[in-house]
Amino acid sequence: MLPSLSSVLFAAPSAAEGNSVGLLxxxxxxxxxxxxxxxxxxxxxKKIRQMHQALKAGDRVITTGGIHGTVVSVRDNFIxxxxxxxxxxxxxxxxxxxxxxxxxxxxxxxxx
Length: 112
Hints:
It is built from 3 helices and 5 strands. The protein has helices spanning 5-9, 15-53, 103-111; strands at 60-63, 68-75, 78-83, 88-93, 97-100.
């Protein structure tokens, strides 16, 4: 005698099938977290690290504290900034640089 269609469709999965489905779901959730959270963070950190390594004298930068200045010299983990209007010189950590201003930004400010 053949089993009815409803008993075949709605039969409970065996224990082995339930464990593999659970494991597959855990792997899928980890993959989603990796591609949506971990990978973009690693890319952003790599970009920031490259920016810090590429700092050179003459770059206009903004620190994490909001200080705008021009890099005078770079040594080890420190940079020396010249801060207008009094041409004050500051020594800050290289990692305190939040961004490097584009080259055209300094020229645009001088015009206004």
